[in-house]
């Protein structure tokens, strides 16, 4: 297959310029409406449930979802679908376990909920560490995807591609805050759902609208094994560990949890999850078909030669079926996808630094809104620079796989403490700090010692930790530590405030 990837084309440039111009215009509009911390962090709590559902979908359907899953399915077959399944099934748990308590108890970050009845300083420091680690690992995947995309479409060096993405993303967050980020995510969600739907229709038209024929073509070319489990994950423990991370990591993602503060009340928060689940479910239903079609029509050799991680499978399929103009459109949509997600991640990281650390730890709750917004913007710059550096370091990794590691950190560091603080009276400050610290540092340590980093990145012969995803160990350890410390140490003040927390959780009395 002949491809124009690596050579700038007029259609690609036009679509890129159009999408960037549109989103920057939205940012300029939002900048005039972003004055207070409530507007910078939570869009003034003025987002409707439907808008937030689209924005949640836009925030969640990342480069890993679009480029990564299609690439994994194309190269690894059936096992690539575990990511689509795992990332979807966490949404009902989010709606029933977390959405309402989060909106009623918190203000800007998930640490507000964990610290509601506990001692503020130690809990917020631990929560900020867990949140920042999650955000950084998630950001790596987006920057790798963006760098590959811009490099291949415009023929510029990978490093400069990553830097350019970082610069545009910083403009969104620094100028427009959550208002701009929300609308960029909405625009991106609509474009992505439209683009992938159109690509799927082209695939089906090529196979006379017979889905079975797509799978038959894959089996004919690569054998029946391509449609059976075992291509990517053969160890059942590793499969369970990955599934736990993908499902429960959602409930600990700071940039997703932040979105529940943008709606007026808890009912809108639950309703927005319902909308988001519908949009995301539809997307994950059709994106594996794109991956299988890419394997059948483009070929694994071509996909792997363009990008070792398989991240260009969907754009290559778009070019084969719709020509260079459609490739330009799909690539521009993928670029908008990455920009919107990185903007949300950066805002979540900046809010942890400014709201949790600066306001509650450094200034002990006494700070002007102007100061908080200024610190948030400084935090945004710091995250932007880190994102660029890490994106360059991890060049060549599959983006879906990298996000799976971020989910492992989220479900280990953030989810256990968040859930226990909501449902268990005995849960206390030392338990929260030890649970978050154990989950965060153990998950990162095991990722470094796993085949993913120890062998693939650092070049050692054998990994010191056998599993590629550590969630089954690190999340279990975080829960056990939280429970054991709670049983060993009593905190009467935290237990006494549990009833007040329950009242606010269910009735929303005093919620901001």
Could you describe the largest sheet, including whether it forms a barrel?
none
Query: Kindly state the mean pLDDT as a whole number?
Result: 85
Number of helices: 21
Strand content: under 5%
Low-confidence stretches: none
CATH homology-level superfamily: Sodium/glucose cotransporter
Whole-number total of structural domains = 1
**Name given to the CATH architecture:** Up-down Bundle
What's the helix-strand series? HHHHHHHHHHHHHHHHHHHHH
Coarse shape: globular
The beta-strand count equals: 0
Distance between the termini: 56 Å
* Helix/strand structural class: mainly alpha
Helix content: over 70%
- At the fold tier of CATH, the topology name is Sodium/glucose cotransporter
Radius of gyration: 22 Å
Question: What is the CATH domain class?
Answer: Mainly Alpha
Oligomer: single chain
